[in-house]
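ugh finaly. both done.
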Amino acid sequence: MTRISTLLLASAALLVAGCGGDDDVNSGSGSGYGGGTAAQSGEADSEKATSEEQAPGTTIKVGTSQYGQVLFGPKDGAIYYFDKEQGSSGECYAACAEAWPPVLTEGKPQAGPSVKQSLLGTSKRDDGTTQVTYGGHPLYYYVDDPPGEVLCHNVVEFGGLWLAVDPSGDPVS
């Protein structure tokens, strides 16, 4: 009985947490998310660049949600765009990136059906990892979204609005 009570309490805590978090945390540059390390020599950088160009990267696909057709990652995680970011470089680091992990790739991002390859791109993060962009905007997941579900669309957090992305690269309205 104690184990069931503990599980119910933990589930209730997760539901209360929802999409929100501590909005007081600065989302500026920090330790970053992903744990990648920078190469130590120019030769290693060159080898890494060559392997990234040849290796297939993260596949972005389209799925159906309560908001219509939206982008999803390879494990069916809903993809979001952070309206605070005006360019292709991500500004979500530290606590922000823990709640909203960047969509990362180790090669050229791949377009699934109904995704425009011409809109896919990448940008380097401060920690040396490569973040997927779509239509020039960095892409993110929400850490607690279950696969195939869009639960955190139109959420204000970390100084901006988080929005699901449609196949044309626009935020869902």
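ok and the 2nd:
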Amino acid sequence: MATYAIRGGAEGARRLNLLAEVMAPTTEALLDAAGVGVGMSCVDVGCGVGHVSRALAARVGPEGRVVGVDFDPVKLQAARDASDRAALGNLEFRQADMTVWSEPSTYDVVYGRFIVSHLPDRERVASRLYDALRAPGLLILEDIDFTGAFCYPPNAGFTRYCELYTRLIARRGGDANAGAALYQLCLDAGLRNLSLRVVQPTHCACTPEKELHLSTLINIGDAALAEELVTQAELETLIAELAHFTADARTLIACPRVFQVWGQRLPAAAT
């Protein structure tokens, strides 16, 4: 998927492991609220190294099944290895480009975390995710709104990182503030009985989770250089500044706001 701005491969997989630790509590609560349960057929679009795929597989049990879809073969192999270690026989992974992926009327649950914000033509993406449901299936989406990211005390390095990430995602055709649009996107796609939550993981002291933003900055470095949004010298200075701020036990760093939206594809007679 040429539009994706964050480094793939092994380095990207390590960042996704950290992201999964940060998001696990709120994503599990979301799956509870949406009603994902035993026997359901699910797809995790943009599954990365498969953290949520494995959580879904555990929820639906042997009676259900889960497919994880991603474009990165290195991440998919890591996902398969972890699935094998967990002996999850109801879980498989497939390589696909999400800009063209389509599986009409196939799943009870379509789930995607931080995928819509990276894709152009988000209305069409939402429509294809809706189409992949068989009524009365559930579409569950989580995505970011970088306008809500903050730190304390204010820090120029963190501010510059947020600006750089937002500009880079836009340059690649995405929208780092797409989370706020999820509700309307889902409505326009045809979903009904929609629900919405906003969560914002925030970290202090010197916890590993606090390093997520630093890891993200490092992993967008190649793309930001390629797009000429920053020079090598500027990037190295920015990484050092954000690393110093992150390592200060007195500072606080908040993730972007995360919008969680879920709703149903109703049978034709009920719409």
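summary for the 2nd one i guess: The chain has eight helices and ten strands.
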